[in-house]
Amino acid sequence: MTHLVWFRSDLRSRDNPALWHACQDPDNSVMGVVFTTRQQWQQHGLGERKMQLLENAMLALRAELKQINIPLLIIPADTFADCNRTLQRIIIQLNIRSVAFNIEYEVNERRRDIEFSRWCREQQVTVCKFHDQCIVPPGEVRTKQDLPFKVFTPFKRAWIQQAENHISPPLPKPRQRNPDIQDALAGLASLQGNIPATAALADPLWPAHEDEAHKRLNDFAAERGRAYKELRDLPARDATSRLSVYLSLGLISPRQCLHTALSHNKGRLTGNNPGFDTWISELIWREFYRHLLVAFPQLCKHKAFKPDTEQVPWRHSESDFKAWCEGRTGYPIVDAAQKQLLAEGWMHNRLRMISAMFLTKHLLIDWRKGEAFFNQWLLDADLASNNGGWQWSASTGADGVPYFRIFNPTTQSQRFDTDGEFIARYIPQLAGLPAAARHQPDSLQRKRCGYDAPIVEHTFARQRALDAFKLTLTAADAGENNDE
Ligand SMILES: Cc1cc2nc3c(=O)[nH]c(=O)nc-3n(C[C@H](O)[C@H](O)[C@H](O)COP(=O)(O)OP(=O)(O)OC[C@H]3O[C@@H](n4cnc5c(N)ncnc54)[C@H](O)[C@@H]3O)c2cc1C
């Protein structure tokens, strides 16, 4: 009997519950399938670099699975509906009786899976689904009133209690199997896409391979984990793990990350080393946003978490938006952040908050525009965390603090990039200025360096944002923290 494993955002051979399950019976054949859905990805707003990264990760997975004699078909399909049709054809042609996959939580993906599972039921094909993207499956962390949490801190407390039941060592890579399925696959060769496997397409900053993910995890844990709490907010320092890209592709699992962190933290989720405690807390933020997405599916449809904030009179200024996108706002820390995004496909977390808040508060531009831009350029683009981060920054999201949190980009810059090192790296024309001047050059310095004047004045912009939010919000907003 042949088992089919349908890979999606879990492009790894280790700690992959669907793959592991399919490999349990040594007498069964196992094959994998994964779809490159460029049209669908484009509809979801992904950029070319991310699409290439995804395809490279698929090729790496194919090589990894080949070592254990599991073939992986990489099949181009325009839409999710096409994926289902192609899978049905494969299942019928190879007389497959069992399909395994790890669950994706976004609305379109869930709809696709419901359709597929229904067809399988009719055909008496077994479907085995696994929770894989979160350590504690969405829906399992609830308030005393049996409701989903809307605020992080109480969610975290409850998550930690639940997590104790879910912590187990990550699954290993399955053992090598008999190479018995190759002949059967000959008839499916025409389905396979021709993805160019050239090194030229590999992203030098982000090698798309699970070994690279593990190297980063181990290096981080050994060299930077203990100082994480202290240094993580300083964008000039390489103090964070840069694993988000790997987590978003599924080249590494959150369980593998947690397991390594625990092994450096005396097995404790909290209350041991502040560096690892804090890093684990960030993994819980990731879980929080995924749990929210499942509990409040309107988040997948670009709706504000706080309905009142749909009334905010966002400004429509294409020129301001373009200046922000291109890093030409005249606020060095914001511009440097945007330049990092465009160059690296990644942005430091502190800068994501500063930049997102600048767009939504200083320029009063709708968070959805910024979210879409990040989604296009971030290689770790992920609906749950991106939406969560944007709505948090715009004060439209799941956050106990009301709308009057407005970062001053200049004081943020002075605090977190004190020597102006990060600014100088990404805006070289400011590197010649004394460090203290790089945060907010005067007009003469700007002229000399060929650097833009500020697009908007801070005090004015702050007041404009406060007025805009005040107009639309009810007092209920301030009393949001009612999860306890
Ligand atoms: C406006 C905005 C947009 C964002 N968009 C994304 C996105 O599309 N994809 C994404 O993975 N993260 C997003 N984040 C969260 C965070 O910025 C990144 O996860 C983090 O910067 C990744 O770097 P790292 O891997 O070095 O993180 P580390 O600091 O090493 O943290 C470890 C892991 O914890 C998770 N994590 C850390 N901080 C957060 C957070 N605030 N929210 C959720 N998860 C977190 C990530 O999976 C990360 O890889 C966004 C944050 C903001 C404010």
Question: What does this protein structure show overall?
Answer:
The chain is mainly α and 484 residues long. The chain has 3 domains: 1-132, Rossmann fold (3-Layer(aba) Sandwich); 134-167 and 211-295, Serine Threonine Protein Phosphatase 5, Tetratricopeptide repeat (Alpha Horseshoe), CATH 1.25.40.80; 307-479, DNA Cyclobutane Dipyrimidine Photolyase, subunit A, domain 3 (Orthogonal Bundle). Helices cover 47% and strands 6% of the residues. It contains 21 helices and 5 strands. Strands 3-2-1-4-5 form a 5-stranded parallel β-sheet, with helices on both faces. Helix 5 (107-122) links the parallel strand 4 (98-102) and strand 5. Helix 4 (80-93) packs parallel to helix 5 (107-122), helix 6 (152-163) crosses helix 12 (274-295) and helix 16 (367-377) packs antiparallel against helix 17. The chain is globular. Residues 232, 240-244, 247-248, 279, 282-283, 285-286, 289, 349, 352-353, 356, 374, 378, 380-382, 385-386, 389-390, 393 line the site of flavin-adenine dinucleotide.
Strand and helix map with partners:
Elements: E1 2-6, H1 17-22, E2 29-36, H2 38-43, H3 48-66, E3 72-76, H4 80-93, E4 98-102, H5 107-122, E5 126-130, H6 152-163, H7 182-185, H8 210-224, H9 228-231, H10 244-249, H11 254-263, H12 274-295, H13 318-326, H14 332-344, H15 349-362, H16 367-377, H17 383-393, H18 409-416, H19 421-426, H20 443-449, H21 458-472
Parallel strand pairs: 1-2, 1-4, 2-3, 4-5
This protein binds flavin-adenine dinucleotide.
Flavin-adenine dinucleotide (FAD) binds at residues 232, 240-244, 247-248, 279, 282-283, 285-286, 289, 349, 352-353, 356, 374, 378, 380-382, 385-386, 389-390, 393.
